[in-house]
Amino acid sequence: MKKETTPGGQAHIKTQPKQAGRKKTEVIELRLSPDDKAAFMEACRMEGQSASSVLRDGINVYLKNGYFGENRRSYKMLISGFLMGAAAVATVYTTLPYFEERVPRAAAESFARHDSNVDGYISLGEFLAPLSKKPTLLPLKAAP
Hints:
Blueprint: E1 2-5, E2 11-14, H1 34-47, H2 51-65, H3 75-99, H4 105-114, H5 124-133
Antiparallel strand pairs: 1-2
């Protein structure tokens, strides 16, 4: 309240208007094509919901989740997927030596001696080469 005097000297009390509290609702204007609006209104009617309640629910979902729908990937999902992938790769690399074919050392050494061009294969020439260098067959003697 504010006390003022009029030009005639009379006191007059002037009341300030009450400050209105926050509005309970606000209005959002939305532009849609006529076809989209008709389809939306029909879908709302079929569900027995008003267009406003459907839009309010959608806005609340967006405010709660930061997106619409459940298929959007969150950071938690991406991080957990990355960790699971890393664990799978680590498992493969640590178990890979157990799945390799084990070759006895003597066989590996013999193969290395025969594979003279180190191509991973023993050709017929490489296989027969030691036979031409060292005769392993002894001549047979005729019986008396």
